[in-house]
Design goal:
The protein is 71% helix and 0% strand. With 505 residues, it is mostly helical. The protein is globular, with a radius of gyration of 23 Å.
Amino acid sequence: MSTVVAAVATMAVIAAAGALPVLVLVGFRWVAVPLTALAGSVIAAVAAALMVAVGGTLLGWFVTLATCSAIVVIALWILRPTTRPWGHGEAGRDRTGRGEAGRDRTGTSVPRRVPGPLAFIGVVAAAAWSLEALRTPSVGFDARTIWMLHARWYVQGHGTSLAALRNTALPFAHASYPPLVGATVALSWVITGNQADRFGVVVVALLNACAAMAAAWVLVDLGHRCGQSIAEARRRAGAVSVGLGAGIVPYAVGATAAVLLVLVAFGVAGPFATNGYADMLWAASAVGAVGYGLVLPGRRGNIASAAVLLAVAGLTKDEGYVTAMAIVALLAFRSAISAPLGHTGRWWRPAVFGVVGVVGLGLWPLLTHLLQAAPNAAAPGRRDGNDASRFHASVVSMAAHLHVLLLAAPVALVGAIILSRARRALGLGSDGWTWAALGTGLAFILIVYVTGPANIELWLITSTHRTTMYGALLGWWVVAIWAVIASAHGVRPRPRRPGTSPRSA
């Protein structure tokens, strides 16, 4: 089977496994397209964990989990019709985005039937263009020694995987890394029979593209929300309709920013987006989770999108699950303090879900500890320097890849001064949540460098360009968010002409 056909078959299988869970949680939204493939990779990761812990084969567990999740979703749709994404009523409309075209609930024209597909085509085209680098075969060092090696273990089943996990002779294989990448590649090999490292690299690159598209789509959803708010303001003011102008401007800006963000994501990752490395996967997923969980209104579809992306980040790399835990804690705190006054029982629900999320993300590290996994080697050589010298060297090395924060910080400051009222009117989370998520993610990486083993200079040279991807992507994303909000803030409703009825708006 050729690489192209095998890649299509793999993405079709994992997307089919994740489709029903994503539909019941997220609904019929464009972001559900990349999320289905990412959710399928999460199922593959859980299948690998169960295989290592209990026994059996990866494919057997994957089919079992996918079938069980489909049965649960179908049963839920039968027993609770309101959970169907095609359901009627206000709840269904909120989940599915009904009313996106024609007229929204306010009765004001919000043309989205055309912009929605156009925005999606643009985002997909940006991802496809960025994947052109796959034409040049390249399998990175970590891809060979970590991700493809893990995939070969998982293909062999429980015995080989468990033995490899405990093998102290393979410290640089990072056997205890979360299983999502290795499991998805192994599954693709089992399904297609193509067990070449080159094909595994293509699968990882496609997952990277899905994560970048999901993170970028937050900007499109934000642009649509801005357009709806403008349309509602015009309706209340009795403004005369100006056709597509008012509603389409922020949507167009959001769609354009989304396309550019996909290109920026691949630019920040560079060759590591298409040579089998997994850093872009967790970083882009975490950025998307920040957008859906901490910026957009805390509606069910947004929170569900954030949950899928957090699962991807947490099951990809060690820094991914720590960052995901921090985002879960921030999300729970935001939801708790946003609980309506007078509903004393509401605050504890986000806290419970937050605890469940943190515990869920910590299951793989706990499992590897219980199975006595071999320790990972950060870099060769003895630990050198003291904490102060390592801190200075780490800050300097990380800062070299975070120049975008010099742009994002003043943009955020100006936005907070000029556009804070517009941001609150849109029901968006404070920009402080985003910076808190960025700070905690970078702080963890910095602490690991300072307190970790190995030769610090070699460690920094070989890793900071990848460990800072999350901070760099989130910095660009902050700039894009404020650009979309500014596009909405600059549109004013036109006063109603005398003798014109509000219905004409």
